Batch of 3 targets.
Target 1
Amino acid sequence: MATIECARCHRYFEKVAFEAVCPRCFPIEEQEFARIKEYLSLHPGASTNEVMRDLNVDLKSIKRYLKEERLEIVGDNKGFIKCELCGKAINSGRFCDGCYKEGQALRHKEEGAVKSAYIKSAEHTTKGIRFRDNKDKKG
Ligand SMILES: [Zn+2]
Ligand SMILES: [Zn+2]
C-alpha cells in the first residue's frame, strides 16, 4: 500500500490497487468515462479535441484514459502520447511495440488493475479516438 497523489484533485490518498484517483474522485471519473463512451458511440471518429470541447473533459484525463488503455487513438496520433521508455508516439498504453516487452516487466508490478468495460465500437473508424478492444492486445 502506498500514498499517492490523486490525478484529479491532487490530494494524497492511500492507494489500494491500481487506481490513479482518490475515492472521492473515483465516481466522478467513472461518470466522465461513461459520458466519453456514450459520446464516442454517437460520434465515431470524434477527435480528442471534440471530446474535450463537447464534454468539457480535461486533456489530462484523456491522456490518462489512453495510458490506461481505456481509450486508444486511431490513425495519426500526432505524438499525443508517447512511449514511456523511448519517447516514440503511440496510440494507447504506455509503451511502443519495441519497448512492449520491457514494459511488461514494469507493468507487472502494477497489476491488480480494475479494468472497466471495454466496449467494441466504431470499428470502421480510421481517425479520432475510440474505446480500446482488449482482445486486440499484442503479445
Ligand atoms: Zn481526488
Ligand atoms: Zn518505446
Target 2
Amino acid sequence: MNTSSLSLLAALVLLPAPAFAHQAAIPFFGGQIAASGDMHVEFAIRDGGVRVWLRDHAEKPVAATGKVTLLLGGAKSEITLRAEGDRLVGEAPVKTADKVVAVLALNAGGKAVSARFAQEALVQPGLNAAASVGQGLFAANCASCHGPSLRGTDQGPPLLHAWYAAGSGHDDTQVLKVIGNGTSGHMWKFGDMPKPEGVKAGQEQDILAYIRAMQAANGIGSAPAAAMPAMGDHQGHAGH
Ligand code: HEC
C-alpha cells in the first residue's frame, strides 16, 4: 500500500459520525421517530401515559421542556411533560391499544421542536386454537414487558414492529429460540430479555402463532430484511 492510499484510508477511518446522519434513527425505546431540524424525537405511548426522547444527530440526549396535545376518541387533551432522566414523561388516560394522534411542542434551550405522531387502534383478530392458547401464555409470560397490546412497555420493545415481522431477520426459528432462551439486548436500549421460566417446552409454537396473528391483523406482514437497521451481523442473527 502506498502513502496516498494510506492517507485515504486514514481519512475514511476518521470520517465523523454525521456521515451516517441520513441513516434512519433507531427508536431505542420502541417508539416512533420524527425528525425536527438537526434533532430527532422518539415518541411512545404507554398504558397510562406518554414518553418522549429528544436526541441530536449523534444520538446524544437533549434536555427539553414542553407539552403534548393528544387527540383521543374525538377528545383533545393537553399534557405537560416532565423530565425524568433522559426522557420526558406525561400521564394521560391513554392506552397502547388506542387510536391516537399526538402533537408535540417542545422547547430545547430556546429552540422550538415540534412533531406529530399517530397510531392506529389495535385490531384484535379472531384466533385459531393454537393462537388462543398462545394469547393466554403471552398474557402470563410476556405482556409485562412487551405489553398487553404487543406495543411495548418501559421494560421491553413492541413486537408489532417491522423488525419482528414474519420473513424478517427475526423469522419463526429466531422467535422460537428467544421464547425458549431469552436474548441479550442488541436492538434497543431495554437490556436483556431473561429466559421466560413459565413457558413449557412445546408452548413456544402457540405463543408464536398468537404473535403472528396479531402482527398480520395489525399490518405487520412479511417485511424485507432491509427494514432492519444495518447493525453488523444482526440481519441473520449470526451473533446469537
Ligand atoms: C422481563 C421482560 C421481558 C419478558 C417477560 C419477555 N421479554 Fe421478550 N424481550 C425483552 C427485551 C428487553 C427484548 C429486547 C432485546 C433486544 O435489545 O434485542 C426482548 C426481545 C424479544 C424478541 C425479539 C428477539 C430478538 O431476537 O431480537 C422477541 C421475539 C420476544 N422478546 C418475545 C417474547 C415472548 C414471546 C415473551 C414471553 C414468552 C417475552 N418476550 C418475554 C424483554 C422481555
Target 3
Amino acid sequence: MTTHRRYQYAATAGAILLAAACAGSLAHRAYPPAVLFGLGVLILTEAALREHSRLKRRRLEDDWARRRALGENPPPLTPCCLLNSHSTDDIHDRNCTSDHTLTRFLDRIEQQGREEK
Ligand SMILES: [Zn+2]
C-alpha cells in the first residue's frame, strides 16, 4: 500500500468518525462541538481528495515512464509536472514528462528575444 493510499484511507476514516460525532452532538443539541466536528469533516475530506488526486497523478506518471521504457514516445502529461503547474513554465520537477532539450531551450530564448523587439 502506498503512502498516498494510506493517508487517503486515514483521512477518510477520520472524516467518517467526525461526521458520526457531529451527528451525535446535533442529536444532543450540543451545537458548538457539532460545528467543530463539522469543520474537521471538511478538512479531512479535503485531505482525502488531495491524496486521491496525488495517487492518480502518480499512476499517470508511472504509466508514462513505463511506456517510455518500452520504447514508445508518449506525449507529455498535462501539466508536464506538478511543480510547473504553479510556475510559468520556468521551473520543472525531476519527474517532468516534457521535453527539456537544449534545442527547445534555445528556441524559447529566441522566441523571447523576438517578442522583446
Ligand atoms: Zn515540467
